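sanity check this:
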Amino acid sequence: MNIFLTGGTGFITWEEIARQAIAVTASKSRIILIDRGYSKEPKNYLVRKIEKHFKLVFKAREKITEHISYLQKVIRGGRAQT
């Protein structure tokens, strides 16, 4: 029996996502970081097994800008494309 965990190939922080959202939307928002004492090293799952068997891999970093732009359009009343 095999168990497959899926996940992204790279760790992305919420800070990175927030900075990208600010850039994409030309916002003047500030990011305030709160140190909660979490480890600097993320706990990642290895995705090699599912990539090898099923050729599935998720590279979120490549899609962040596209998705933020999509959300901005939806929020402003644009039609969502599916």
